[in-house]
Amino acid sequence: MGNFKLRVLDLAVKEINEKSDIKVSYTQVKKGRTITGFKFVVHEKLKTKTEKTSKLRDVDTADMFTVEGLNDKQLGRIVRNPAFMAEYNHLVSPTSPAGKSQQGWEFEMVNRLKKDASQFKKRPIRDYLEY
Description:
Blueprint: H1 2-19, E1 22-31, E2 34-44, H2 49-56, H3 72-80, H4 82-88, H5 97-100, H6 102-115
Antiparallel strand pairs: 1-2
Helix pairs in contact: 3-6
């Protein structure tokens, strides 16, 4: 039994404790001198609040859902700008949903700006905010 605990149980418990977010411990269940089983206790590891928030978003990483620091409302205002519409109208076919309605146009252009803002380089993107 000593080799089983040393080579199997202790190694497994150590690996679980190191590589997961739970903490495992065990005790032997004996009947007299004979080991009849093991009782395992599993706990969730305590994490600090900063550790949880650091995994959610890295402060040094640029936000992948904004374009040049602009939020969705500002991007919507940009794509509704008549100058923007005139300069980038060729990107949408007239038969697509974006070519048939104002809301479709706005939705399509905001998504395109988020995916690849490099195709909108005729003017600085912030210039379209002022109209």
